[in-house]
């Protein structure tokens, strides 16, 4: 008997059936919601969508989101580099435990990620009274929003760099220091060029989440229009006000951010697969 | 300097590279300030109610109903993804067709799309005048503002976890056992059922666990489509926010602690199950 096809190939009918199922799942569950965002934003014409974005409260939300990400992402990137340097380049006790703790924020639900800061800095939190006496606002203000954003994006850069830098070992850095390079010179000239694509990959994912976070920020923001509403929170406010064009116009900016992130992420994965831990492991 | 050096050498190996103290010091400080101290605040807070006060918060029927919806909905969504996820992963790894790379990149959309955006889009899509909601409403099926809507949103955010966990495993899977099964006369479906599926099972469980863990705490993509009717379609994270708005910090923290404890318990159980299956093979 002769096989009409290679024995580990599926029957053509099965192939078509499974492919169509997969494509429908992706189209129905993933593409359709994305398409809805843009069609709803443009439902009353392009001009209306642009006008909605020019609204002062919408512009304030865009500014706050950019500002929050501009503070949170560099801090987490610096932390990720420092953590990966300590964990990947040195051998010490408690290393595994430290790595586990760094991943902890990913297993905390978003709402609780905001709640923990309210418990410390909120009106009835640990430091509530002293903060009120000193007239410092953290909750329902920028510092709280930044803190919650830092928490939910905490592991992104570190968990990308730790496996990458561990794989790369420390011979190159040791060679540089033995030739007389200082620590910072070694980092800038040897380590950084080796990890730049991995770092960019981590920063990209960190930034997407920082700009899009909703649950955690919602708890600490207080939803004050034009003041403490980030873009995702502004989307919620407009949607609950039945201002659908405005809500979906702001949402489509965020959806564009997601698309740009996905494109850059795919490009990095295709071109620098060996220099990114996430694809390296595959 | 020499004293600290002697102490340090006992718990870390000597190294020619500089910067250990600075990098580890910053890491531990930042980790403690941002993560550890705030989580300690969460764990300590509910106990000001006393044990019975804590219990009173949790056994409130509205809280129990919300916990049931969050955990039950997450479990059903993970189960749905455990069926569709492997099909998508199989097609992406084993077949080649035009547009495959695009399909592959799209899988990560729920990771990248802000949850509030997904939330209003799903809500619009499944509302009685939306693209999917309208045809279904003629059949008498309502999805938005019911528990089914909650499950749809949780399925949406969970899919990439299953697909992305299965893909590398499928890629590395040797085809020899499949060839052997085929030469021994097994049909293709028998081979898939008896040879391929068992090999994928541990990864499938991991992916479903990740999807479940994410779905339990999900807030942004759910609250719009859920409609948030108390006792019917109100999820537990929303109740935490409601308690906070009433300045009832301790009750909010109590629900948060129970959710964390319960999801750690479920994840631990699934991990043990996965180890057990791995050992048996």
Which percent bin holds the helix content of chain A? over 70%
**Which chain pair has the greatest contact?**
A-B, 103 and 97 residues
Helix content of chain B: over 70%
Largest sheet descriptor of chain A: none
Number of strands of chain A: 0
Distance between the termini of chain A: 38 Å
Structural class of chain A: mainly alpha
Could you name the CATH class of chain A? Mainly Alpha
Distance between the termini of chain B: 54 Å
What CATH calls the topology of chain A is MetI-like fold
Largest sheet of chain B: none
Q: Find the CATH superfamily of chain A.
A: MetI-like
Tally of alpha and pi helices of chain A: 14
Model description:
The complex is a heterodimer of chains A (282) and B (281). Chain A is mostly helical and 282 residues long. Chain A has a single domain, classed as MetI-like fold (Orthogonal Bundle), CATH 1.10.3720.10. Helices cover 75% and strands 0% of the residues of chain A. Chain A has helices at 12-41, 46-54, 56-89, 95-103, 110-121, 128-133, 142-152, 156-168, 171-178, 183-212, 215-221, 231-240, 244-271, 277-280. Chain B is mainly alpha-helical and 281 residues long. Chain B is 78% helix and 0% strand. Mean pLDDT of chain B is 90; it is low at 1-6. The chains are: A mainly alpha (282), B mainly alpha (281). Chains A and B meet through helix 1, helix 3, helix 4, helix 5 and helix 7 of A and helix 2, helix 4, helix 5, helix 6 and helix 7 of B.
